[in-house]
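Recall that a protein's primary structure is simply its ordered list of amino acids. Everything else, from secondary elements to tertiary packing, is in principle encoded there. The following example makes that idea concrete.
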Amino acid sequence: MLFTSSPFIVFFLFIAMPLRWFVPGRFVPLALLVTSYAFYLSWSVPYTVLLAAMTLASYGASRLIARRDGKSKLVVALSVAVLLAVLAYFKYTNFILEQIHSARHVSIVLPLGISFFTFEMISYVVDVYRGAAPAKSLVQYLVYIAYFPHLVAGPIVRTRELLPQLEDPRTFDSEFVCEGVFIALVGFVKKMVFADNLGVFADLVFKDPKAQPTLIVWLGVLAYTGQIFCDFSGYTDIARGASMMLGISLPENFDYPYNSTNIAEFWRRWHMTLSRWLRDYLYISLGGNRHGRVATYRNLLVTMLLGGLWHGANWTFVVWGAWHGALLAVHKAFVDLTEKNEVLAALRKTIPYRTLAWTATFLSVAFGWVLFRSPTFERAEEVLSAMLHYPAVPFVAGKAPAELAFAGRALLVLAFFHMLGGARVGLRTHRGMPAAARGLLWAGMIGVCYLFTIGSPVFIYFQF
């Protein structure tokens, strides 16, 4: 069930919500467990069994670790190794076999959301080893992993963010639920109005960039830059809004990242729960910034390279991760070089500098999205060549793709709302509205979705 599909809306409004709010408080975790497994069962029965088996295995490991009997470190190592092995089998077996030309291709379907729930299991096991309190019951832990709003594509939730809400379920709060409705509708608009329609134009450009003039290719790359933000942050908004309608708060995953003025700030705003996971369980484990500048730059590069590989079994993802790792290392070196210079420190606060820094950051991110979107290096090279060289096909307004006009307007509107969103204008305005005005706003947002929808079958990040 896709979040934007009619079956999900019926399931959520007529099964999940009534079951959550009509059962006594002590049965709320059980109600959420039933609806969450029903949700995943609608995708695949065998992979639901896999989800349950991995959950039980990681829970059992955490119970052994909590005993503190001298074998905890070994149990952590073995459990993390097993979880990563399962993830690697499903995610990278085809990729590895493709590198061995003599090997036959094996078709292995990736279980939905396995990258996300595997990372949550690893974080739980490691956190218990580091001293965090384990779940008080198996049901709570089963819900923590399988809770359907965040199960498929995040946000990656930590136990301290969800378990307390299961131990003491929130009573019905109309204001909290209404805010959830608004956030979810924002997500629907991002996905159905912006992401899906920008994707049509981006697909047209990336399919054959050599046939497009420079201006069209640039707009195509900008369209994908907007598409991936609206698609993924739209999913997160729907997930967070739906969860609030069930009385549970999930962490933010995006904080208007294209407003960033440096690459480190971008990663503090983009896919925030993945960024902190990579920081807490990979970057710090590698040594972080504790062993000198060179080691710090190396750790940044390795962390982002592996983060790129996490996104998919393709060399373009690896290079995309390396690109961002290199950008982070360069930024860190620049900060180290300039932070003690009063003149340069003052310069970095000026509007011209911040404008230049924003432009450089945005273009660096957009360049990376070319690698992320392209299925091969050859296609990425074609797109970048078309962007940087005057094309054989000149731009002729009368022969421009029909999707160009809509994509151009959508990008301008999206940029405007991106700036407003950074100032939290939408939420503040919604909170100050009377009930009737909210209803009209919600109806308008639903109407816009139905007016502009083209029915894209999936969210981009479902493939990860």
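The longest helix spans residues 174-207. The mean pLDDT is 89.
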